[in-house]
Amino acid sequence: MIRILVIVPFALDAEGLRNREAQSGHVPLPADWQLTYRPVTCGPTSFMSPHDWGLMDMAIFEAGCTAQDEGFDAVCIDTMSDSGMVMLRSVLDIPVIGAGKASMLYALTLGGRFSVLAQWEPALPRYRKAIRKYGFDRQCASVRSFDQPPDFANLLGGKEDQVFPRMRDVALRCIHEDGAEVICLGSTTMHQAGEYLAANLPVPVVNPGPLTYKLVETFLALGLSHGRAAYPAPVEPRLDMLRAMMKAGAGA
Questions:
Q1: Which residue from 195, 201, 147 is spatially nearest to 175, judged by alpha carbons?
Q2: 209 three-class SS
Q3: Residue 2: predicted pLDDT
Q4: Which of 18, 128, 130, 195 is most buried by its number of CB atoms within 10 A?
Q5: In the sheet where 182-185 sits, what is the strand order?
């Protein structure tokens, strides 16, 4: 059996986790795979500022830092921010895939320029930061929002009739006004809209969460993982300190 740990960036309840788990239904996966969706112990309740980004890095790192010892074969980070990804790669030898960089790189195998479809205006600085960091300034046609405050637990459930057409209209502006040749959904919380947009847009649509599962499948099949030259191991790991911090935070 192949075991994949999917780290969910918020401390969700069982219903919230089920909405995230539904992403696995968007792509065919090997019969012997087991995806385990794990929420963080604690962390920010928002995701719109450098304050939130720093806390999210720590929360996701703590949730996955022992994945290899637990017997997992790979880790997927269920957020476009790639929070905690480089930290996890420094302590794990198994593949660690973040949805953000992976989906943008994959978009560039489908077209020359992509746009990111974000949920609302306060999230835009996070995407622009990632685009600058990864060097995609020339390939990113635009980042546009469809003005929908995020619901990290229920996602887009119950809002389909109102939100999906609005997402389509904003994506069409990315295509016709900005020159996007591919649309990247800006969050794994948008996965429910992936099939609708793919059927109603004239360009490919990248659904980031399901993409990470298929990339892990490829990595494992090819025997690939990140290298120590890019992600050196810590000289003195302090995972015990981190766990104590998260435990204290969860009880606050």
A1: 201
A2: helix
A3: 96
A4: 130
A5: 140-145, 114-118, 182-185, 205-206
